[in-house]
C-alpha cells in the first residue's frame, strides 16, 4: 500500500480569535494512523476540525500550512480536499433508504456499479440485506455504521472523527469503534479523532495531542 499519498502535515498552525491565540499546532499524521486530539471544552478542538475541512468560521484567523500527500491544500476549497467528517449526529436522510443514503456519498462512481458496492459495503459491516430499510428503523449502532459507509464510499483520503461514538452505550461503543478503526487502517486512510474518552484514545493507539486552553497554552 502506498501510504505517502495520504500523509497529512499541519505546519506551524496558529489560530486566533481576535488578537488572542486560541491554539497552535505542528504535527504530521501518517496514512493508517489515528491521531487523537483531546482537551477541555473551549480549547479549540472543533475549530481545528473546521480549519482542516476548510470551513473555519469568519470570527477566527489562521496562519499556517496544510499539506496532504505533499500538496499544499491550505487554500483548496472544502469540496476538493478529500477530507471527510464523521460526527456524533451524522444525520442520515430519513426520506432515503439505507442504500440511498450511502449512494448519496458516492459522487465518484458509475451508477451501474454503485448498487453492488453498496451491498458489499453493507455486508462488510454486518448489515447484509438492509439496503431498502429506512434509517429510523435501525438501531443507533446500525445507523452509525451506515453513516460511516456513506463517508467511506465517497473515498476520502482523510477522515475526521468528532466524538463519533459518544451517543452509543459502552458495549456498542467499543464494537463500533473497532469497526471504524479497522476500516480506516485497512483503507490506509489518515484519521484525526476528537474525543473526551481515554478508552477511545487508547484504542486509536496513535499520537495523542492535548490542546490546552487559550492564549497562554501551547498545544504541542
Ligand atoms: N462561531 C463562533 N463565534 C465566536 N466564538 C466561537 C465560535 N465558535 C467557537 N467559539 C469559541 O472559540 C473557542 C473554541 O471553541 P471550540 O468549539 O473549537 O472548542 P472545543 O474544544 O471544540 O469545545 P467542546 O469540547 O466544548 O466542543 C471557545 O471559546 C468558543 O466559545
UniProtKB/TrEMBL annotation:
SMART domains linked: AAA (SM00382)
Gene Ontology MF term list: ATP binding; ATP hydrolysis activity
Organism expressing this protein natively: Glaciecola nitratireducens (strain JCM 12485 / KCTC 12276 / FR1064)
Key words of the record: ATP-binding, Nucleotide-binding, Transport
Domain of life (superkingdom): Bacteria
PROSITE patterns recorded: ABC_TRANSPORTER_1, ABC_TRANSPORTER_2
UniProt name for this protein: ABC transporter related protein
Pfam families tied to this protein: ABC_tran
Family matches, as InterPro entries: AAA+_ATPase, ABC_SmlMolc_Importer, ABC_transporter-like_ATP-bd, ABC_transporter-like_CS, P-loop_NTPase
Domain ABC transporter: 2-219
The keyword 4Fe-4S belongs to this UniProt entry's keyword annotation: no
Amino acid at each position: 500500500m502506498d501510504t505517502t499519498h495520504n500523509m497529512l502535515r499541519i505546519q506551524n498552525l496558529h489560530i486566533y480569535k481576535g488578537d488572542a491565540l486560541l491554539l497552535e499546532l505542528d504535527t504530521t499524521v501518517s496514512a493508517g494512523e489515528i491521531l487523537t486530539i483531546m482537551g477541555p471544552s473551549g480549547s479549540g478542538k472543533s475549530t481545528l476540525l473546521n480549519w482542516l475541512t476548510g470551513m473555519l468560521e469568519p470570527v477566527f484567523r489562521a496562519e499556517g500550512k496544510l499539506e496532504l500527500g505533499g500538496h499544499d491544500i491550505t487554500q483548496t476549497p472544502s469540496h476538493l480536499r478529500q477530507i471527510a467528517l464523521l460526527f456524533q449526529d451524522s444525520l442520515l436522510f430519513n426520506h432515503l433508504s439505507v442504500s440511498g443514503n450511502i449512494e448519496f456519498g458516492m459522487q465518484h462512481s458509475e451508477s451501474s456499479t454503485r448498487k453492488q458496492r453498496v451491498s458489499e459495503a453493507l455486508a462488510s459491516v454486518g448489515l447484509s440485506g438492509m439496503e431498502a430499510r429506512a434509517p429510523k428503523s435501525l438501531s443507533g449502532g446500525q445507523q452509525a455504521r451506515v453513516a460511516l459507509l456513506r463517508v467511506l464510499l465517497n473515498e476520502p483520503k482523510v477522515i475526521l472523527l468528532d466524538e463519533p461514538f459518544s451517543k452509543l452505550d459502552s458495549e456498542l461503543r467499543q464494537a463500533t469503534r473497532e469497526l471504524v478503526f479497522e476500516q480506516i487502517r485497512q483503507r490506509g486512510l489518515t484519521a484525526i479523532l476528537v474525543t473526551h474518552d481515554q478508552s477511545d484514545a487508547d484504542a486509536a493507539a496513535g499520537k495523542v495531542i492535548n490542546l490546552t486552553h487559550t492564549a497562554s497554552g501551547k498545544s504541542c
